[in-house]
Amino acid sequence: MAAHLEEQQELDNFKYFWKTTGKWLFAVLILAALGYLGYTVYQNRAASQNQEAAAVLANIVEKAQNKAPQSEINAELTKLQQSYPHSISAAQATLMAAATEFDAQRYDVAEGHLKWVLSNQKDSLIQALAAQRLGVVLLQQKKYDAALAALDTPVEADFAPLLLETRGDVYFAQGKNQDAVKSYTRALEQLPPNAVARELLQMKLDSLK
Questions:
Q1: DSSP secondary structure string for all residues of 119-173
Q2: Confidence of residue 195 (pLDDT cuts 50, 70, 90)
Q3: What Rg do the C-alpha atoms of the chain give, in angstroms?
Q4: Distance CA 4, CA 175 (A)
Q5: Contact yes or no for 120/91 (Cβ under 8 A)
Q6: How many CB atoms lie within 10 A of CB 201?
Q7: Is the pTM for the entire model greater than 0.85?
Q8: pLDDT tens track for 154-178
Q9: Closest CA to 133 of 109, 120, 157
Q10: Quick one: which of 109, 97, 155, 107 has its CA closest to 129?
Q11: Which of 32, 73, 166, 167 would be a feasible disulfide site paired with 135, CB 3.0-4.6 Å?
Q12: What integer best gives the mean pLDDT of the chain?
């Protein structure tokens, strides 16, 4: 009898707990489970998309190596940009396309590619590379103010010397040698002692003294 009463008391306690707290706790547990499931699905989907984007990039590289018509390569690039705009593969392919257009002196097309990268890719290294290349492209077009604005793109400290050196190049092209010296000096101060770029940067700086 006592055992029965104890069981009944436990049942009553559980019912009370369920009415007062249990429903809310259950809801929280369900939300947590759904959140975890959503995160897992998102991670798997992201991994799958990265693989798909990498496959398109590999196809672009293969077409470029086999001297495929530029129209085919551009079509693949557009597909990659539209389907996987935030993937590293899309950024890599677009940077490659910008380099090709730059070498062909189609600076306006290269400029468009680089601006696309800056708008769609937030990786710090790619942001720095795209900003620096955009500064060079605009410099070639003598769009000095626009070049300096591009080089104002916020980047991590490790990549700052890259943009500072190009800023010095822009100032030098404008005949603003004192500003160029300041930019080169700042870049040199921020470069690691064993950086390969130090020698060329020092030569640029020495030529203005």
A1: HH---HHHHHHHHHHHHHHHHHTT-HHHHHHHTT----GGGHHHHHHHHHHHHHH
A2: confident
A3: 28
A4: 97
A5: yes
A6: 20
A7: no
A8: 999 999 999 999 999 999 999 999 9
A9: 109
A10: 155
A11: 166
A12: 79
